[in-house]
Amino acid sequence: MQQIIQKPYKTSSTLAALSLAIVSAALFLPLPLAAQQTGPLPPPPSYSAPTPTPLPQPRSNPASAPHQTTTESPLTTDPPKIPTDQIIQKFAERELEFKKERDNYTYTQTFVIQTIDEYSGRPDGEYRMTSDIVFTPAGKRTEHVTDAPAPSLQRIQMSQQDFDDLEHVQPFVLTSDEVQKYDVKYAGQQQLDEINAYVFDVAPKKMEKNQRYFQGRIWVDEKDFGIVKTDGKAVPDIKKHGQENVFPRFETFRENIEGNYWFPTYTHSEDTLQFSSGGVRIRMTVRYENYKRFGSTIKIGPATEVPKEKP
Q1: Closest CA to 222 of 182, 189, 253
Q2: What are the φ/ψ torsions at residue 18 (nearest 5 degrees)?
Q3: pLDDT tens per residue, range 94-112
């Protein structure tokens, strides 16, 4: 998310252009925010457990109500029953299956980002958007925006990296195609509600130009090897040409859909973006609802002659 240094936003052509850009953005929009500095990028910070932050009080709008794990056991560092390399291979293969399966689903996505006044603790700016991720009659995946009020953000604005992170980082999927790009280190085991989970710390091995990555911690179900929770941030922060693009820490929670895969259903962030001119406190939620499988996968093989039935 980039800081706005000039005069505050007004409902003008700038806002109209921003709304148009967001409407035409990528299909998946789980949400980040941004900041920068001159010279080479600093290395990403190592993972550390987040300091508990009071969650916002539920409002009438369902997108603001927190949805998350209710109980967590202490993290134990006991070695797993099977080698960690096998666990990583199993969950990466499972994630690849899940990624392909999710591409066959329609759903409704609502995201909200707010700047929070430090004195009153109340929102002083907001961007809100609700979309249906659907398919055309020809089977092409597309996004239909159903609600997008005029934004009132005055201290920050969305960047292209934010939109990229909305699609790829918040609903983080670590497939067998992508796992080679990351250092994945076993951190222990923990129980989340009724789920016994393996815990891994994840960080990119190196950062390629114009690429976005996740850095943080993931929880993997011990039974079916699906990722059930992620906690971290999008990296790298970007600081160049006098612009600052800083990204918040977030948690994404998944739920078991139709008994097969763990689908992201809620992302929450309560963080302070540190700009050179000072911090900007933000609150972000992304909610994914009404997952429905579209059609079915049909494999077409070579033509064969079917013998006629005898009378």
Answers
A1: 189
A2: -65, -45
A3: 999 999 999 899 999 998 9
